[in-house]
Amino acid sequence: GAVVSQHPSRVICKSGTSVKIECRSLDFQATTMFWYRQFPKQSLMLMATSNEGSKATYEQGVEKDKFLINHASLTLSTLTVTSAHPEDSSFYICSAGDRGREKLFFGSGTQLSVL
Amino acid sequence: QKEVEQNSGPLSVPEGAIASLNCTYSDRGSQSFFWYRQYSGKSPELIMSIYSNGDKEDGRFTAQLNKASQYVSLLIRDSQPSDSATYLCAGGGAQKLVFGQGTRLTINP
Predict the structure, then answer these.
(1) Taking CB atoms and an 8 Å limit, are B101 and A109 in contact across chains?
(2) Which residues of A are less than 8 Å from B41 in CB distance?
């Protein structure tokens, strides 16, 4: 099956620093990737849709200047949490779908803890 | 606002019994529905997908879709302790999915 790799799996950082999370599709090309955030005991909330070669589409209430998304190639999307604060502490998950397939494949997630 | 609703549980089922998980959705335009299993601290794992009305069986899992009632369910037969997890229902189309809040399932030995 299709594999999506996400790195790092866990980050602990100081308030005010920026954190970059990478999401790679390993055996297929993904023109679209999705970034989700999940707080404890809550569901996945879609943050943005990452489109290869163009600007990301952000969901309502998500600050595009704070959560920078870059999708420079068909296999890599990055999410940068800029000037992170404790309230940004969450589980961030990316997903990607193989072209023409409805199914989404998820990365392993990144647990971000901002001190 | 497109919504997917699930009972958050927890749902406790004895080992060997049938676990029944339910989900409703508001967007009649949704074409695809999925059940994901998520263990604590891990990312979701696809269990079942269903696109048309009726039942779809895969091993111990059966997904049921009723578009008229906007209802999706997942049955787990012969429940095992390893089935204990949070089950997420998702609906949508073109890969953009809306997730329910998840149902926490515990299988008691």
Answers:
(1) no
(2) 91, 109, 111
DSSP for A16-73, written as a single string: T--EEEEEEESSS--SEEEEEEE-TTS--EEEEEEETTS--EEPTT--TTTEEEEEEE
Q: Is the minimum CB–CB distance between B56 and chain A shorter than 8 Å?
A: no
Closest CA to B77 of B45, B94, B49, B55: B55
* pLDDT of B28 over the 90 cut: no
Inter-chain contacts counted by CB atoms under 8 A, chains A and B: 46
The answer to whether the CB atoms of A102 and B51 lie below 8 A apart is yes
* Cα gap B20→B70, rounded to integer Å: 17
* Three-state secondary structure call for residue B82: helix
Q: List pLDDT tens digits, range A61-99.
A: 999 999 999 988 889 999 999 999 999 999 999 998 766
Backbone CA torsion sign across A19, A108, B23, B95: positive
Closest chain A residue by Cα to residue B93: A102
Q: What is the pLDDT of residues B30-53, one digit of tens each?
A: 888 999 999 988 999 989 999 999
Q: Is B72 on the interface with A (CB under 8 A)?
A: no
Chain A contacts of B32, Cβ < 8 Å? Answer: 102
Which residue, among B57, B49, B7, B6, has the nearest Cα to B30 in the 3D structure?
B49
Answer whether B18's CB lies under 8 Å from B76's CB: yes
Residues A6, A91: Cα–Cα separation, whole Å: 12
